[in-house]
Protein backbone atom coordinates (compact mmCIF):
# COMPACT_ATOMS: atom_id res chain seq x y z
CA UNK A 1 0.00 0.00 0.00
CA UNK A 2 1.25 3.46 -0.87
CA UNK A 3 0.07 6.94 0.02
CA UNK A 4 -1.77 9.31 -2.31
CA UNK A 5 -1.84 13.01 -1.53
CA UNK A 6 -4.83 14.42 -3.40
CA UNK A 7 -6.16 17.85 -4.34
CA UNK A 8 -3.05 19.84 -3.47
CA UNK A 9 -1.07 22.36 -5.49
CA UNK A 10 2.52 21.25 -6.11
CA UNK A 11 5.10 24.04 -5.91
CA UNK A 12 8.62 23.44 -7.21
CA UNK A 13 11.33 25.87 -8.22
CA UNK A 14 10.06 25.80 -11.78
CA UNK A 15 6.38 24.87 -11.72
CA UNK A 16 3.06 25.34 -9.99
CA UNK A 17 0.60 22.56 -10.82
CA UNK A 18 -2.55 21.09 -9.36
CA UNK A 19 -1.93 17.36 -9.19
CA UNK A 20 -2.05 14.28 -7.02
CA UNK A 21 1.09 12.60 -5.80
CA UNK A 22 1.67 8.88 -5.13
CA UNK A 23 4.29 7.76 -2.62
CA UNK A 24 5.61 4.22 -2.84
CA UNK A 25 7.92 3.33 0.03
CA UNK A 26 10.24 6.28 0.60
CA UNK A 27 10.02 7.87 -2.84
CA UNK A 28 7.62 9.71 -5.08
CA UNK A 29 6.33 7.17 -7.59
CA UNK A 30 3.84 9.14 -9.66
CA UNK A 31 2.49 12.64 -10.15
CA UNK A 32 -0.71 13.20 -12.10
CA UNK A 33 -4.36 14.18 -12.06
CA UNK A 34 -7.04 11.97 -10.58
CA UNK A 35 -4.66 9.24 -9.46
CA UNK A 36 -6.46 6.08 -8.29
CA UNK A 37 -6.68 5.70 -4.53
CA UNK A 38 -7.83 2.12 -4.10
CA UNK A 39 -5.54 0.24 -1.74
CA UNK A 40 -3.68 3.38 -0.68
CA UNK A 41 -3.73 5.68 2.32
CA UNK A 42 -5.24 8.98 1.19
CA UNK A 43 -4.23 12.42 2.45
CA UNK A 44 -6.56 15.22 1.37
CA UNK A 45 -4.59 18.41 0.71
CA UNK A 46 -7.48 20.55 -0.52
CA UNK A 47 -6.53 24.21 -0.22
CA UNK A 48 -2.97 23.29 0.67
CA UNK A 49 0.36 23.54 -1.12
CA UNK A 50 2.84 20.68 -1.49
CA UNK A 51 6.42 21.89 -1.06
CA UNK A 52 9.65 19.89 -1.05
CA UNK A 53 11.03 19.58 2.46
CA UNK A 54 13.23 22.46 3.48
CA UNK A 55 17.01 22.02 3.52
CA UNK A 56 19.04 24.10 5.96
CA UNK A 57 22.71 23.85 4.96
CA UNK A 58 24.18 25.84 7.87
CA UNK A 59 23.54 24.58 11.40
CA UNK A 60 25.51 23.97 14.60
CA UNK A 61 24.02 21.31 16.87
CA UNK A 62 25.77 20.51 20.14
CA UNK A 63 28.66 22.78 19.13
CA UNK A 64 31.44 23.48 21.68
CA UNK A 65 31.87 27.26 21.93
CA UNK A 66 33.35 29.53 24.57
CA UNK A 67 33.22 27.08 27.46
CA UNK A 68 29.76 25.69 26.72
CA UNK A 69 27.75 23.83 24.07
CA UNK A 70 24.98 25.01 21.79
CA UNK A 71 21.79 23.91 23.49
CA UNK A 72 20.11 21.86 20.74
CA UNK A 73 21.35 18.34 20.13
CA UNK A 74 20.63 16.12 17.13
CA UNK A 75 17.20 15.23 18.46
CA UNK A 76 15.87 18.51 19.83
CA UNK A 77 17.28 20.56 16.96
CA UNK A 78 16.08 18.20 14.26
CA UNK A 79 12.63 17.83 15.80
CA UNK A 80 12.32 21.62 15.89
CA UNK A 81 13.42 21.76 12.25
CA UNK A 82 10.72 19.27 11.29
CA UNK A 83 7.99 21.26 13.02
CA UNK A 84 9.06 24.19 10.84
CA UNK A 85 9.05 22.21 7.58
CA UNK A 86 12.76 21.45 7.30
CA UNK A 87 13.43 17.77 6.59
CA UNK A 88 17.19 17.81 5.91
CA UNK A 89 20.10 19.85 7.19
CA UNK A 90 23.89 19.95 7.00
CA UNK A 91 25.81 20.47 10.22
CA UNK A 92 29.48 21.36 10.71
CA UNK A 93 31.77 18.63 12.01
CA UNK A 94 34.65 20.43 13.72
CA UNK A 95 38.20 19.13 13.40
CA UNK A 96 39.68 18.82 16.90
CA UNK A 97 42.87 20.78 17.50
CA UNK A 98 45.81 18.54 16.73
CA UNK A 99 43.51 15.90 15.30
CA UNK A 100 42.54 14.75 11.84
CA UNK A 101 39.52 15.63 9.74
CA UNK A 102 38.29 12.05 10.10
CA UNK A 103 38.36 12.41 13.89
CA UNK A 104 36.03 15.40 13.63
CA UNK A 105 33.67 13.45 11.38
CA UNK A 106 33.64 10.51 13.79
CA UNK A 107 32.85 12.82 16.73
CA UNK A 108 29.86 14.26 14.89
CA UNK A 109 28.58 10.85 13.83
CA UNK A 110 28.56 9.90 17.50
CA UNK A 111 26.59 13.05 18.36
CA UNK A 112 23.93 12.09 15.80
CA UNK A 113 23.86 8.36 16.51
CA UNK A 114 20.56 7.25 17.99
CA UNK A 115 19.22 10.82 18.06
CA UNK A 116 18.77 11.97 14.46
CA UNK A 117 15.12 12.16 13.41
CA UNK A 118 15.44 13.93 10.05
CA UNK A 119 18.06 13.44 7.33
CA UNK A 120 21.40 15.16 7.73
CA UNK A 121 24.88 15.61 6.31
CA UNK A 122 28.13 17.19 7.40
CA UNK A 123 30.56 19.80 6.23
CA UNK A 124 34.01 19.71 7.83
CA UNK A 125 35.21 22.89 9.53
CA UNK A 126 39.01 22.88 9.44
CA UNK A 127 40.65 24.34 12.53
CA UNK A 128 44.24 23.10 12.29
CA UNK A 129 45.44 22.89 8.70
CA UNK A 130 48.78 21.14 9.00
CA UNK A 131 50.34 19.72 5.78
CA UNK A 132 49.08 16.21 6.52
CA UNK A 133 45.59 17.61 7.08
CA UNK A 134 45.72 19.38 3.72
CA UNK A 135 46.48 16.01 2.13
CA UNK A 136 43.46 14.51 3.90
CA UNK A 137 40.92 16.86 2.27
CA UNK A 138 40.16 14.67 -0.80
CA UNK A 139 39.49 11.65 1.40
CA UNK A 140 36.39 13.41 2.75
CA UNK A 141 34.64 12.53 -0.50
CA UNK A 142 34.69 8.87 0.55
CA UNK A 143 32.97 9.97 3.77
CA UNK A 144 30.19 11.58 1.72
CA UNK A 145 31.41 15.06 2.63
CA UNK A 146 32.39 17.13 -0.43
CA UNK A 147 32.52 20.50 1.38
CA UNK A 148 34.98 22.14 3.75
CA UNK A 149 34.80 25.37 5.72
CA UNK A 150 37.60 27.77 6.56
CA UNK A 151 37.59 30.85 8.77
CA UNK A 152 39.00 34.27 7.93
CA UNK A 153 38.05 35.41 11.45
CA UNK A 154 38.59 34.33 15.09
CA UNK A 155 42.28 35.20 15.18
CA UNK A 156 44.40 32.82 17.21
CA UNK A 157 41.64 30.23 17.32
CA UNK A 158 40.26 29.38 13.87
CA UNK A 159 41.60 31.99 11.46
CA UNK A 160 43.73 30.88 8.49
CA UNK A 161 46.08 33.05 6.45
CA UNK A 162 45.69 33.72 2.74
CA UNK A 163 48.28 31.13 1.74
CA UNK A 164 46.42 28.41 3.59
CA UNK A 165 43.07 29.58 2.26
CA UNK A 166 44.29 29.60 -1.34
CA UNK A 167 45.96 26.20 -1.09
CA UNK A 168 42.86 24.71 0.48
CA UNK A 169 40.59 26.11 -2.21
CA UNK A 170 42.87 24.77 -4.93
CA UNK A 171 43.12 21.33 -3.31
CA UNK A 172 39.36 21.08 -2.81
CA UNK A 173 38.63 22.39 -6.29
CA UNK A 174 40.86 19.77 -7.92
CA UNK A 175 38.59 17.09 -6.52
CA UNK A 176 35.21 18.70 -7.19
CA UNK A 177 34.77 19.84 -3.60
CA UNK A 178 33.27 23.12 -2.41
CA UNK A 179 35.10 25.52 -0.11
CA UNK A 180 32.98 27.55 2.30
CA UNK A 181 34.34 30.62 4.07
CA UNK A 182 33.42 32.72 7.06
CA UNK A 183 34.46 36.05 5.57
CA UNK A 184 35.50 38.68 8.11
CA UNK A 185 38.95 40.23 8.55
CA UNK A 186 40.00 38.65 11.83
CA UNK A 187 43.16 40.74 12.19
CA UNK A 188 41.21 43.99 12.12
CA UNK A 189 38.51 42.64 14.43
CA UNK A 190 41.17 41.63 16.96
CA UNK A 191 42.60 45.16 16.94
CA UNK A 192 39.20 46.81 17.26
CA UNK A 193 38.18 44.46 20.07
CA UNK A 194 41.35 45.11 22.06
CA UNK A 195 40.89 48.87 21.69
CA UNK A 196 37.22 48.71 22.78
CA UNK A 197 38.03 46.65 25.85
CA UNK A 198 40.85 49.05 26.77
CA UNK A 199 38.27 51.85 26.74
CA UNK A 200 35.97 49.84 29.02
CA UNK A 201 33.41 49.25 26.26
CA UNK A 202 32.07 45.86 27.28
CA UNK A 203 28.30 45.94 26.55
CA UNK A 204 26.81 43.62 23.87
CA UNK A 205 26.51 46.47 21.33
CA UNK A 206 30.30 46.53 21.03
CA UNK A 207 30.23 43.07 19.51
CA UNK A 208 28.77 44.77 16.45
CA UNK A 209 30.84 47.94 16.71
CA UNK A 210 34.09 45.96 16.62
CA UNK A 211 32.99 43.91 13.57
CA UNK A 212 31.96 46.66 11.10
CA UNK A 213 30.51 45.73 7.72
CA UNK A 214 33.56 46.97 5.83
CA UNK A 215 35.70 44.18 7.33
CA UNK A 216 33.18 41.64 6.06
CA UNK A 217 33.22 43.28 2.65
CA UNK A 218 37.03 43.29 2.50
CA UNK A 219 37.30 39.62 3.47
CA UNK A 220 34.57 38.63 1.02
CA UNK A 221 36.36 40.42 -1.79
CA UNK A 222 39.63 38.71 -0.88
CA UNK A 223 38.04 35.25 -0.78
CA UNK A 224 36.25 35.83 -4.09
CA UNK A 225 39.50 36.98 -5.73
CA UNK A 226 41.37 33.92 -4.46
CA UNK A 227 38.63 31.64 -5.75
CA UNK A 228 38.90 33.34 -9.12
CA UNK A 229 42.65 32.76 -9.25
CA UNK A 230 42.29 29.14 -8.11
CA UNK A 231 39.35 28.49 -10.43
CA UNK A 232 37.75 26.71 -7.49
CA UNK A 233 34.11 26.90 -6.34
CA UNK A 234 33.50 29.09 -3.31
CA UNK A 235 30.44 29.52 -1.09
CA UNK A 236 30.42 32.52 1.26
CA UNK A 237 28.36 31.78 4.35
CA UNK A 238 26.08 34.12 6.33
CA UNK A 239 26.47 37.28 4.20
CA UNK A 240 25.01 40.35 5.91
CA UNK A 241 25.80 43.63 4.20
CA UNK A 242 26.00 45.76 1.07
CA UNK A 243 29.79 45.71 0.99
CA UNK A 244 29.92 41.90 0.91
CA UNK A 245 27.16 41.67 -1.71
CA UNK A 246 29.07 44.07 -3.93
CA UNK A 247 32.18 41.90 -3.81
CA UNK A 248 30.26 38.71 -4.56
CA UNK A 249 28.49 40.38 -7.48
CA UNK A 250 31.80 41.59 -8.87
CA UNK A 251 33.22 38.09 -8.79
CA UNK A 252 30.14 36.57 -10.42
CA UNK A 253 30.22 39.23 -13.13
CA UNK A 254 33.79 38.16 -13.89
CA UNK A 255 32.68 34.56 -14.22
CA UNK A 256 34.24 33.31 -10.98
CA UNK A 257 32.59 30.15 -9.53
CA UNK A 258 31.36 31.91 -6.40
CA UNK A 259 28.06 31.76 -4.52
CA UNK A 260 26.61 33.10 -1.30
CA UNK A 261 23.97 32.63 1.36
CA UNK A 262 22.36 34.87 3.88
CA UNK A 263 20.55 33.87 7.06
CA UNK A 264 17.01 34.69 8.09
CA UNK A 265 17.95 36.84 11.08
CA UNK A 266 19.79 39.45 9.02
CA UNK A 267 16.54 40.62 7.42
CA UNK A 268 14.79 41.25 10.75
CA UNK A 269 17.26 41.92 13.58
CA UNK A 270 19.55 44.95 13.50
CA UNK A 271 22.60 46.35 15.24
CA UNK A 272 20.42 48.61 17.37
CA UNK A 273 18.87 45.50 18.95
CA UNK A 274 22.23 44.70 20.54
CA UNK A 275 21.93 48.01 22.39
CA UNK A 276 18.74 47.07 24.26
CA UNK A 277 18.80 47.87 27.99
CA UNK A 278 20.81 45.74 30.36
CA UNK A 279 22.08 42.51 28.91
CA UNK A 280 19.12 41.97 26.58
CA UNK A 281 21.23 42.64 23.49
CA UNK A 282 23.25 39.47 24.14
CA UNK A 283 20.34 37.47 22.72
CA UNK A 284 21.25 38.75 19.28
CA UNK A 285 25.03 38.30 19.38
CA UNK A 286 26.25 36.22 16.44
CA UNK A 287 29.03 36.57 13.90
CA UNK A 288 28.97 38.38 11.58
CA UNK A 289 26.79 40.70 13.65
CA UNK A 290 23.41 42.16 12.85
CA UNK A 291 23.55 45.13 10.48
CA UNK A 292 21.10 47.86 9.38
CA UNK A 293 17.68 48.03 7.71
CA UNK A 294 19.45 49.31 4.59
CA UNK A 295 21.56 46.17 4.49
CA UNK A 296 18.43 44.08 4.94
CA UNK A 297 16.82 45.71 1.92
CA UNK A 298 19.92 44.89 -0.12
CA UNK A 299 19.71 41.26 1.02
CA UNK A 300 16.05 41.03 0.01
CA UNK A 301 16.97 42.38 -3.41
CA UNK A 302 19.84 39.92 -3.79
CA UNK A 303 17.55 37.00 -2.93
CA UNK A 304 15.00 38.17 -5.46
CA UNK A 305 17.37 38.76 -8.37
CA UNK A 306 19.60 35.71 -7.93
CA UNK A 307 22.67 37.47 -6.58
CA UNK A 308 22.34 35.25 -3.48
CA UNK A 309 21.54 31.59 -3.84
CA UNK A 310 20.43 30.25 -0.44
CA UNK A 311 18.74 31.21 2.83
CA UNK A 312 19.93 29.22 5.84
CA UNK A 313 19.95 29.89 9.59
CA UNK A 314 23.40 29.39 11.13
CA UNK A 315 21.28 27.87 13.92
CA UNK A 316 23.47 27.91 17.03
CA UNK A 317 21.27 28.38 20.11
CA UNK A 318 22.35 29.10 23.65
CA UNK A 319 20.29 29.62 26.78
CA UNK A 320 19.85 33.26 27.69
CA UNK A 321 19.51 32.33 31.35
CA UNK A 322 21.88 29.40 31.37
CA UNK A 323 23.55 27.47 34.14
CA UNK A 324 20.29 27.03 36.09
CA UNK A 325 17.78 24.18 36.40
CA UNK A 326 20.16 21.78 34.72
CA UNK A 327 20.76 24.02 31.71
CA UNK A 328 24.12 24.41 30.05
CA UNK A 329 25.86 27.74 30.60
CA UNK A 330 24.70 30.26 28.00
CA UNK A 331 24.76 33.90 27.09
CA UNK A 332 25.34 34.93 30.73
CA UNK A 333 28.98 33.91 30.27
CA UNK A 334 29.44 37.26 28.54
CA UNK A 335 28.00 39.53 31.22
CA UNK A 336 31.52 40.59 32.10
CA UNK A 337 32.34 41.51 28.49
CA UNK A 338 30.89 41.21 24.98
CA UNK A 339 33.86 39.15 23.77
CA UNK A 340 32.83 36.33 26.13
CA UNK A 341 29.21 36.06 24.89
CA UNK A 342 28.65 32.73 23.11
CA UNK A 343 28.06 33.60 19.45
CA UNK A 344 24.86 32.32 17.93
CA UNK A 345 21.08 32.57 17.67
CA UNK A 346 18.23 30.04 17.34
CA UNK A 347 16.21 29.82 14.13
CA UNK A 348 16.03 26.33 12.57
CA UNK A 349 12.31 26.03 13.33
CA UNK A 350 11.31 29.47 12.07
CA UNK A 351 13.15 29.82 8.74
CA UNK A 352 10.42 28.55 6.41
CA UNK A 353 7.50 30.40 7.98
CA UNK A 354 9.31 33.70 8.45
CA UNK A 355 10.62 33.73 4.89
CA UNK A 356 7.21 32.75 3.47
CA UNK A 357 5.48 35.50 5.44
CA UNK A 358 7.92 38.25 4.49
CA UNK A 359 9.35 36.90 1.25
CA UNK A 360 6.29 35.51 -0.53
CA UNK A 361 3.45 37.31 1.23
CA UNK A 362 5.64 40.41 1.48
CA UNK A 363 6.06 40.56 -2.29
CA UNK A 364 9.83 40.06 -2.44
CA UNK A 365 9.66 36.87 -4.51
CA UNK A 366 7.33 34.13 -5.73
CA UNK A 367 6.47 30.83 -4.10
CA UNK A 368 8.65 29.15 -6.72
CA UNK A 369 11.63 31.30 -5.78
CA UNK A 370 10.94 30.49 -2.13
CA UNK A 371 11.28 26.78 -2.91
CA UNK A 372 14.44 27.47 -4.89
CA UNK A 373 16.08 29.36 -2.00
CA UNK A 374 14.94 27.07 0.81
CA UNK A 375 15.28 23.67 -0.80
CA UNK A 376 16.23 23.30 -4.47
CA UNK A 377 19.37 25.44 -4.60
CA UNK A 378 20.69 23.97 -1.33
CA UNK A 379 20.21 20.48 -2.77
CA UNK A 380 21.90 21.34 -6.06
CA UNK A 381 24.88 23.19 -4.57
CA UNK A 382 25.57 20.58 -1.90
CA UNK A 383 25.26 17.40 -3.94
CA UNK A 384 21.79 16.19 -2.95
CA UNK A 385 19.72 16.93 -6.05
CA UNK A 386 17.40 15.41 -7.31
CA UNK A 387 17.16 13.00 -4.39
CA UNK A 388 16.30 16.02 -2.27
CA UNK A 389 15.12 19.53 -3.06
CA UNK A 390 12.24 18.87 -5.45
CA UNK A 391 9.00 16.97 -5.90
CA UNK A 392 9.64 14.64 -8.83
CA UNK A 393 9.25 10.97 -9.65
CA UNK A 394 12.16 9.14 -8.01
CA UNK A 395 12.88 11.85 -5.45
CA UNK A 396 12.65 11.16 -1.73
CA UNK A 397 9.13 11.81 -0.51
CA UNK A 398 10.16 14.70 1.73
CA UNK A 399 6.98 16.72 1.51
CA UNK A 400 5.59 19.66 3.42
CA UNK A 401 1.83 20.07 3.17
CA UNK A 402 1.75 23.83 3.62
CA UNK A 403 -1.30 25.77 4.72
CA UNK A 404 -0.92 29.26 3.21
CA UNK A 405 -3.84 30.57 5.28
CA UNK A 406 -2.79 29.35 8.70
CA UNK A 407 -1.60 32.06 11.09
CA UNK A 408 0.86 31.41 13.88
CA UNK A 409 2.48 33.69 16.43
CA UNK A 410 6.08 32.74 17.08
CA UNK A 411 7.05 32.45 20.73
CA UNK A 412 9.57 30.72 22.98
CA UNK A 413 6.55 29.41 24.90
CA UNK A 414 5.48 27.24 21.97
CA UNK A 415 8.59 26.62 19.88
CA UNK A 416 10.42 23.29 20.01
CA UNK A 417 14.00 24.57 20.04
CA UNK A 418 15.88 23.90 23.26
CA UNK A 419 16.34 27.50 24.34
CA UNK A 420 14.47 30.03 26.46
CA UNK A 421 14.05 32.84 23.94
CA UNK A 422 13.13 33.37 20.32
CA UNK A 423 14.55 36.23 18.24
CA UNK A 424 11.21 36.52 16.38
CA UNK A 425 9.15 36.63 19.60
CA UNK A 426 5.64 37.91 18.89
CA UNK A 427 5.94 37.85 15.07
CA UNK A 428 2.71 36.62 13.48
CA UNK A 429 3.21 34.66 10.29
CA UNK A 430 0.67 33.50 7.74
CA UNK A 431 1.66 30.19 6.18
CA UNK A 432 2.60 27.21 8.33
CA UNK A 433 3.23 23.46 7.91
CA UNK A 434 0.07 21.40 8.25
CA UNK A 435 1.85 18.07 7.83
CA UNK A 436 5.47 17.07 7.23
CA UNK A 437 6.58 13.83 5.62
CA UNK A 438 10.12 12.47 5.66
CA UNK A 439 10.76 9.81 3.03
CA UNK A 440 7.03 9.12 2.84
CA UNK A 441 6.39 8.87 6.57
CA UNK A 442 4.48 11.55 8.46
CA UNK A 443 6.67 12.94 11.24
CA UNK A 444 4.65 16.07 12.06
CA UNK A 445 0.87 16.29 11.93
CA UNK A 446 -0.32 19.67 13.10
CA UNK A 447 0.96 19.99 16.66
CA UNK A 448 1.69 16.26 17.00
CA UNK A 449 5.18 14.80 16.82
CA UNK A 450 5.13 11.39 15.11
CA UNK A 451 8.83 11.03 14.35
CA UNK A 452 11.33 9.00 16.31
CA UNK A 453 14.90 9.27 17.49
CA UNK A 454 17.36 7.36 15.35
CA UNK A 455 15.20 7.37 12.20
CA UNK A 456 17.18 10.11 10.42
CA UNK A 457 19.57 9.03 7.66
CA UNK A 458 23.07 10.35 7.05
CA UNK A 459 23.24 11.89 3.57
CA UNK A 460 26.24 10.77 1.55
CA UNK A 461 26.62 13.76 -0.77
CA UNK A 462 28.17 13.88 -4.24
CA UNK A 463 31.16 16.01 -5.37
CA UNK A 464 31.20 18.09 -8.57
CA UNK A 465 27.89 19.68 -7.62
CA UNK A 466 26.39 22.63 -9.45
CA UNK A 467 27.69 26.16 -9.26
CA UNK A 468 24.50 28.20 -9.59
Describe the structure concisely.
Helix content is 27%, strand content 23%. The protein is α/β, with parallel strands linked by helices and 468 residues long. The protein starts with a strand and ends in a 19-residue tail after the last strand.
Can you put this structure into words, describing what you see?
With 468 residues, this protein is α/β, with parallel strands linked by helices. It has a domain at 54-370: Alpha-Beta Barrel (TIM Barrel), CATH 3.20.20. 27% of the residues lie in helices and 23% in strands. It has eleven helices and 19 strands. It has helices at residues 76-83, 101-112, 131-136, 162-174, 186-198, 205-209, 213-230, 242-253, 293-305, 351-360, 367-381, and strands at 3-11, 16-24, 27-32, 41-44, 49-52, 54-59, 64-65, 68-69, 86-94, 119-125, 147-151, 178-182, 234-236, 258-263, 310-312, 399-409, 428-438, 441-445, 448-449. The strands form three sheets. Strands 1, 2, 3, 4, 5, 16, 17, 18 and 19 form a nine-stranded mixed β-sheet that branches. An eight-stranded parallel β-sheet has the order 6-9-10-11-12-13-14-15. The chain has a two-stranded antiparallel ribbon with strand order 7-8. Helix 7 runs parallel beside helix 8. The longest helix is centred in the middle third of the chain and has 18 residues, at 213-230. It is globular and about 75 Å long.
Amino acid sequence: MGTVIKNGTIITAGDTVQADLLIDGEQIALIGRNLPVEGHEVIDATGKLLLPGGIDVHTHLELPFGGTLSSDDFFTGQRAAAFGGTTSHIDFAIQPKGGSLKEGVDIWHKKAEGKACIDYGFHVAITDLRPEVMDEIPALIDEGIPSIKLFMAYKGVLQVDDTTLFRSMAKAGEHGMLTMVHAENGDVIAELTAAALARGETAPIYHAKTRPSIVEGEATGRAVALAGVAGAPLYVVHMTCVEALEQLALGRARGFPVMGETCTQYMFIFEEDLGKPGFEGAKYVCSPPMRTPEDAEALWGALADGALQVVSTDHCPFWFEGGVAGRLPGKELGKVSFDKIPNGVPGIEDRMAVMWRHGVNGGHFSANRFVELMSTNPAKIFGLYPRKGTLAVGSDADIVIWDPEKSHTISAKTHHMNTDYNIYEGMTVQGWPDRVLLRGRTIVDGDRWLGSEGSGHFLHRCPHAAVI
